[in-house]
Structure formats: structure tokens, C-alpha cells
Amino acid sequence: MWLDAVESGQELPARIMFATMRRLGGTEAPAIMKVTCYRHRYFGTPLSDLIQDAMRGPSCWTVAEREIFAIRASQSNECPFCQSAHRGIAGAYMAGDLVDEALADGDSSPLRPEARAMLEFVGKMVRDPDGLTPGDAEKVRQAGVTAEAFDEAVWVATLFNVITRVMNTVGAEALEASQAQVGARFIKAFGYRTPPPVRFLSRGA
Questions:
Q1: Are 1 and 141 in contact (CB under 8 A)?
Q2: How much is the pTM?
């Protein structure tokens, strides 16, 4: 069930921004933006800064690979919103059919061996953390994943283990294809940080 607080409790800068998106983009602001802009200094802005660094900062992984990791974490937590949103975002960095093939884990996966091994680890880490063994980490290492790359991918999975649970809790539903495309263009252009009107003009928490 969608929480009414994230609809009615927004401050004026966020309400104006959402209205502008409806007018110019022809679509409702995505649920994640409403969640992160609600009392953003308490939760949304710190989290979005972490996600921006993990997903767009310097990394051993490409942007597309990190988005694939985010989708796998979303699948493991059965989060329809994040699956659809990041499927759209990944499709802005690689062809949509390649995204599907990467997630299918088959022999036709376009991912390099390191990313394929890491993707398997990410899925198990989120789905069954108690079932992880040293052998799972060793399999990733044998695929050529460095310690630095391993830590970066685990950090991506950890952040999406948090945000997918939040989105499931507030009842966010899967995006329609048109909404996912608009959201993907926005993220590709501006990144994951809280939009400046909200970050700098909101007065409250």
C-alpha cells in the first residue's frame, strides 16, 4: 500500500519540481524521487549521495555493469519498482536485449567473466546472505575480480538491499515502460543525487 505521507508531506520546492515534471515530461514523478525528497536531509540526501558515488563514481566496473548489479539485487528482494527503473537505466547504457541476456545468466551473456561471476555473488548475497561461504568469494576471485572491484560491487548490492526494502515498504509499483524511459533519461543526465531545488531550497528535515 502506497504511503500517503510521501505524497502530501512534501515541502514547496519538491511540490513545484514534481508539478514541473508532470507538465513538461507528461508523467508523474517516480516513486523513488518522492521517497528521497520527503524529509530529505534525514534520509534521502545522504542515501542518494552514497548511491551517486557507488553508481557513477570512479570504479573498476562500468556504469552498465553496476546497473546490472542493482537489477539483480532488486530481483533478489522482489522489488518491482527498482527492477523496472534500473532495467530502464541500464538500457540507456547498453541495448535492452543485452540487459536481458546479462540477467539471464546464460552462455550468451554479454558480460565479461568478472562481471558474470560478481553478478552471481550479488544475487546470493542479497537473497541468502547466511548461505554465503568462502567458496563463493573464491569463485569470484578465480574469475579475475580484484579485492577493490569486489568491495565496490558488494557496496552497490548493499545500498540496493536497503533501497529495495524501502520501496517495497512504501508500496512502490513497477514503472510503465514510458515512465522508466523518462526516469532513465533523467538519471543519465543528472545522476542520483537529490535535485538542487530540493537540496538547497527546502527548509525542513
A1: no
A2: 0.92
